[in-house]
Amino acid sequence: MERGIPIEVSGLGKRFGQVTAVDDLSFTVRPGVVTGFLGPNGAGKTTTLRMLLGLVRADRGTATFGGTPYAKLDRPLETVGAALDSSFHPGRTARDHLRVYATAAGIPHRRVDEVLEQVGMADYARRRLGGYSLGMRQRLSLAYTLLGDPGVLVLDEPINGLDPEGIRWIRVFLQGLAREGRTVLISSHLLSEVQQSVDEVVIIAKGRLVKTGTLASLELDAAPRTIVDSPDRTALAAALAAAGLAHSEGRSGFIVDEPDPGRVGHAAFVGGVELSALHRLRSGLEDSFLALVGETAPDASGGPPPDAVAGSVIPAEAADGVDAPRVSAVEAGGR
Asked: Are 292 and 259 in contact (CB under 8 A)?
């Protein structure tokens, strides 16, 4: 039985000065699955979530929960649990921290102990938050989102910075919430962080939608390419261009939009270019994701991405922060 309601984003747009943070964005998040909201840093993910939660006013379009804007929900904390930029008073205990917001939302205090138990934090309920690790803070943020036992959860980078044990725990926990019929949306700038957690993906880049669907459909989108390198890259680039082979430069050679290494090698032979590397690049989820958002796979063969490619992404402070207020997880869920 579904407990959640769909998240519906339609024609959403937002500019901060001269920067377009979100541009005509539309997608739907279904109950009963974990959906990853993915894109590089600065893609517009956090701005989108802030508009969804009524913390930033959209210039155009709508973002609703089952057709209702967040600001018009009768009991928002019991409909939507949201964790964006978590902030904690270091002198408070976990129990006191949650009781403040339970009181404000009219939620019985017994629910505080229930959610602390649910996220495995009952033994640390009386410990001051100043001594919490990052993983414990992430669990406390999750406990806050569950205070009203909502059918929808919206989590911004919940896995960021966690150790392997914490990542495994939160993956299992989120999948369990989805199996209960809840709507679960988690954002991340790394597919590798969430690919074992999510069932479906919404991918954006530079504020625009580039892909929605299942993980399987994402992998099918990846087209095989070829890696080629030479001691004389200038001559190699000329030979590839002469053969009409589109390519981009990585740290370990050129990534050529051609699945047949033989054709690439022939182009180099015709151009009289000596090769030091020639092999097919096997495509996968991460490669497909990076191609969709306009980045190159880490050196396409293991190293960091080229500076030119990395620099082509809108800076985070431009797309996700210009004139936009910073909010806490509590503010996100308590309005």
From this structure: no
